[in-house]
Amino acid sequence: MGKKQKTVLVGVTAGIAAYKACEIVRGLQKAGVRVKVVMTKNATHFITPLTFQALTGEDVGVGMFDDPADPIPHIHLAHEADLLLIAPCTMNVMAKLANGIADDLLTSTALAMIAPILIAPAANEYMYSNPASMRNMATLTSRGVEFVEVDEGYLACGDVGKGRLADVDRIVARALAKLGIIGDMKGLHLLITAGPTIEPIDPVRYITNFSSGKTGYMLAAAAARRGAEVTIVSGPVAVDAPEGVNVVHVRTAREMRDAVAEVFPSCDLAIFAAAVADLRPTDEADHKLKKGLDDVALSTIKLSQNPDILAEMGRAKRGDQVVVGFAAETNDVVPNARKKLSAKHADMIIANEVGPEKAFGTEGNEIWMITATGEEHLPYMLKTELSDIVLDRTLDLMK
Ligand code: PMT
């Protein structure tokens, strides 16, 4: 008989971050968890029960007496859950929990819980750091309730401070750890290149491209959530490092090559999502080139080839390593990408069409996954969704 599927009851309370509960639900589901949602009535002002019903395929609990067939829904919910995760949790709900108040479905369920409770608070920094909230948190901690520490940063009210809901991946990872669920990438070391490289012309100018790093960073977040040890070798980007991921920052293609070469021998999988500049100015001027004085140098910048990092690592790879490259194409996407599969000695190439508003910097993408034996097309979807499918196929290549 297979292992019993775990059930997480996600409690959603009335905070601006309530919409992030959707991503938390998805993250848990991706790990094979059954998710049920209970909302406070006030939370329904921020997000509808229908959204969670559609995501989970389960009834969403709000009122104590909404289901005439079940007069004690809080007891049933509490008994079938392996974990109650309240995210986001307002200071008001936290105060009720600390004092044993059970005046709605969520707080009544919490009081009836036998399985552990994990809370991811979210609030304005003053509400969060208020001694009352701190005392409530300490009380709950002393009773065995665990917390996912809030993040610091921009808050919905415009203030900057401590109180932002923790990173979704961090919340999901903590919940999975509490359930004892080991991700399917546990024990694997994944190397990912991400972002653009910049190739200096002089101290103030450089050649680069439009890569934002989102693709590589989202792949990294998904892999870390699935238990992998992840190293990103990243060009300059404005995206935040995912929780628990090691990031090596570089600027140029040659720096990226050196950093990759150092990590590559110890990795099991490598995904090359970076948009590496193929060419660099042969000579980097040591002063700002000036109009009038340096016209010749400015109008005739000589270029040299950068190392092809993917091809180099593809050639060097051991039999037990899997190497996946990307192909950014503006035309004949699949045929051009297929050529790169052999030219770069990759096990799989992920082809995408690039252009204005296409692939670079976008939240979603359409891709073709090309291997020696076939190809699979994935229609436009969020890069977060694509990441898990790409990782699934990459793992298949290890078998
Ligand atoms: O970062 P985002 O804004 O999310 O955008 C994502 C993306 C468009 C950058 C990504 O989806 C993508 O296509 N990345 C690869 C971009 C690219 O450089 O493609 P290419 O066809 O030129 O290169 C083919 C492969 O060789 C790539 O895996 C690339 O990382 C690698 N390469 C290329 C040149 C070089 N000198 N060294 C390399 O390793």
Any overview of this molecule?
The chain is α/β, with parallel strands linked by helices. 33% of the residues lie in helices and 25% in strands. It has helices at residues 20-30, 49-56, 73-80, 91-98, 105-112, 125-129, 131-142, 168-179, 214-225, 253-263, 295-299, 309-316, 333-343, 383-396, and strands at residues 7-12, 34-39, 83-89, 117-121, 146-147, 151-154, 160-164, 189-194, 199-202, 205-207, 229-234, 246-249, 269-272, 279-281, 303-305, 322-329, 348-353, 364-371, 374-382. The strands form five sheets. Strands 12-11-8-13-16-17-18-19 form an eight-stranded mixed sheet, sandwiched between helices. Helix 1 runs parallel beside helix 2 (49-56), helix 3 packs across helix 5 (105-112) and helix 8 runs parallel beside helix 9. The radius of gyration is 25 Å and the shape is elongated. The chain starts with 6 loop residues before the first strand and ends with a helix. The model has no long low-confidence stretch (mean pLDDT 94). The structure holds ligand PMT.
β-strand amount: 15-25%
Q: What's the end-to-end separation, in Å? A: 24 Å
Give me the count of strands: 19
The stretches of 5 or more residues where confidence is low (pLDDT under 50) are: none
Strand order of the largest sheet: 12-11-8-13-16-17-18-19
What value does the Rg take, in angstroms? 25 Å
Q: What small molecules does this complex bind?
A: ligand PMT
Average pLDDT level: 94
**Large-scale geometry:** elongated
Estimated structural class: alpha/beta
Q: Which range best describes the helical content: under 10%, 10-25%, 25-40%, 40-55%, 55-70% or over 70%?
A: 25-40%
Query: How would a textbook summarize the main sheet?
Result: 8 strands, mixed
Number of helices: 14
